C-alpha cells in the first residue's frame, strides 16, 4: 500500500498544497463543488484501490453533477490524501460512502494518517538519536527530526521521561499540522558514511605540523612531541 505522502503527490500538485485551506469541520456552501481535477484524481485512486467494487457502486467517472462532488465540496487535495491514507490503514474491502469519506478527510490529523511513525516510535527514535553518541545517524523521517530539534536534544536526554515526552509529543503534533498545511520542515542532516578513512596523508601531516609551528613560540624539534619530531625533519627535505 502507498503512504500518505505518495498519495498526496498523486492527488494534489505543489501549487495546490500551498493554497490548501486549514482543516475545518464546517459544512461547505451548497453551491460549492469539488473541482473536476480533484474528482478525476480521486476516481482514479479509488478505482486502483477498490476496482470493480468502486466502479459498480459509483460509476467509471464523475462530474459536478455527481453526489460525491457536492458532498466533498470545500475539501482540499491534501485533505483527500489524508482520507485516502486512512482507507489504506483501515484495510476495508468495500469503499466508503461520500459522507464517510468526507469525515475521514476532515478528521484531526494524526501521524498515522500521514503514514508517519507513531508518537511512541517517534519519541523513542528522538531520544535515541539525540544522544551525542548517535551524531550523524540517519533519521526515519524529517518530521521526527524536526520535532526533536524543536524539543531540543538536551531536553530529550536530560529531562525526566514524562516531561521530555510531553514536550516532544506537543511538537510532533505541531509538525504533523505543518505537513498537512504544506509548510517546510527542518532538513535532516546527512548521515555519516558507514566507514571513515582514518589514514594520515603526507599533506595532512604537513598541515598539522604547520599549525603546531605557529602555536609554539620556538618551533624547534625539542619542543615538539617526540612522535611528531620526524615530521619536522621530513618537511625540511620537502
What's this entry about, in short?
57% of the residues lie in helices and 0% in strands.
Characterise this structure.
The chain is mainly α and 238 residues long. The chain contains 13 helices and no strands.
Sum up the structure in keywords.
mainly alpha; elongated; disordered N terminus; 238 residues; 0% strand; 13 helices
Strand content: under 5%
Roughly what percent helix?
55-70%
Order of helices and strands: HHHHHHHHHHHHH
- Structural class by helix and strand composition: mainly alpha
Rg, alpha carbons: 28 Å
Q: If you average the pLDDT, what whole number results?
A: 77
Low-confidence stretches: 1-5, 12-30, 192-197
Biggest β-sheet strands, sense, barrel: none
Helical region count?
13
Shape: elongated
How far apart the termini lie comes to 63 Å
Total beta strands: 0
Provide the fold topology.
Layout: H1 4-11, H2 14-18, H3 36-50, H4 52-58, H5 67-71, H6 77-90, H7 98-106, H8 119-129, H9 142-151, H10 153-158, H11 161-180, H12 202-215, H13 226-236
Helix pairs in contact: 1-6, 3-4, 6-7, 8-9, 9-11
Amino acid at each position: 500500500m502507498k503512504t500518505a505522502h505518495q498519495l498526496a503527490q498523486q492527488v494534489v500538485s505543489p501549487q495546490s498544497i500551498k493554497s490548501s485551506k486549514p482543516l475545518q469541520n464546517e459544512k461547505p456552501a451548497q453551491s460549492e463543488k469539488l473541482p473536476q481535477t480533484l474528482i478525476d484524481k480521486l476516481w482514479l485512486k479509488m478505482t486502483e484501490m477498490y476496482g470493480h467494487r468502486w466502479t459498480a457502486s459509483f460509476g467509471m467517472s464523475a462530474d459536478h453533477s455527481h453526489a460525491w462532488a457536492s458532498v466533498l465540496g470545500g475539501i482540499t487535495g491534501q485533505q483527500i490524501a489524508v482520507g485516502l491514507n486512512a482507507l489504506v490503514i483501515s484495510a476495508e474491502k468495500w469503499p466508503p460512502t461520500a459522507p464517510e469519506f468526507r469525515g475521514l478527510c476532515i478528521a484531526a490529523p494524526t501521524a498515522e494518517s500521514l503514514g508517519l511513525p507513531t508518537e511512541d516510535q517517534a519519541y523513542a527514535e528522538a531520544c535515541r538519536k539525540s544522544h551525542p553518541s548517535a551524531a550523524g545517524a540517519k533519521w526515519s523521517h524529517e518530521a521526527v527530526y524536526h520535532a526533536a530539534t524543536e524539543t531540543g536534544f538536551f531536553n530529550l536526554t536530560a529531562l525526566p521521561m514524562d516531561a521530555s515526552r510531553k514536550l516532544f509529543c506537543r511538537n510532533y503534533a505541531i509538525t504533523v499540522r505543518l505537513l498537512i498545511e504544506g509548510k517546510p520542515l527542518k532538513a535532516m542532516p546527512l548521515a555519516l558514511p558507514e566507514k571513515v578513512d582514518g589514514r594520515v596523508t603526507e599533506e595532512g601531516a604537513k598541515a598539522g605540523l604547520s599549525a603546531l609551528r605557529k602555536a609554539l613560540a620556538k618551533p624547534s624539534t625539542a619542543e615538539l612531541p617526540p612522535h611528531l619530531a620526524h615530521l619536522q625533519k621530513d618537511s625540511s627535505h620537502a
